[in-house]
Design brief:
By secondary structure, the chain is of the alpha+beta class. It has 2 helices and 8 strands; from the N terminus they run βαββββαβββ. It has an 8-stranded mixed β-sheet, covered by helices on one side. The longest helix is centred in the last third of the chain and has 14 residues.
Length: about 140
């Protein structure tokens, strides 16, 4: 694995507002902001302006944010996950298999439109993990 786990915050359509708030509070930069409408992802029109992914960085503080898909509500408890970057197919597969054994799969390990192998799994203790292997 590469580096530390990165907090990934999920919002109910107000991720852009939250990012602006964090920039005001902490300073820092918003980067890689992409909406559902800009992504190569099937989306209903009401989600076009929602953020599918963005990053915020100030010195060592680094978080990623997204708005939930319109019918997937966000509540305290499912609004944060920990993102892990992997270096090999074998490593991501091993962790994915171990987490799903006693956990709940939110998204199967699969190839994505952003050029990665990705999965989202809630472990046996209720912690949600985003597993990502960026392809070269």
């Amino acid at each position: 694995m590469k580096g530390q786990a990165t907090p990934y915050l999920m919002f109910n359509g107000n991720a852009k507002e939250a990012l602006e708030y964090y920039r005001e509070v902490f300073g820092g930069e918003i980067s890689n902001l992409q909406t559902y409408g800009e992504a190569d992802y099937p989306t209903p029109p009401e989600a076009n302006d929602r953020i599918i992914h963005a990053q915020f960085k100030k010195d060592e503080l680094f978080i990623m944010v997204s708005d939930a898909f319109p019918d997937n509500g966000v509540e305290v408890g499912n609004n944060i996950s920990l993102a892990l970057e992997f270096e090999s197919q074998e490593e991501i597969q091993k962790v994915y298999d171990a987490l799903r054994e006693k956990g709940t799969v939110h998204m199967e390990l699969q190839d994505t439109f952003w050029g990665a192998k990705y999965a989202k799994v809630k472990d046996a203790f209720g912690v949600i993990w985003d597993l990502n292997l960026q392809k070269a």
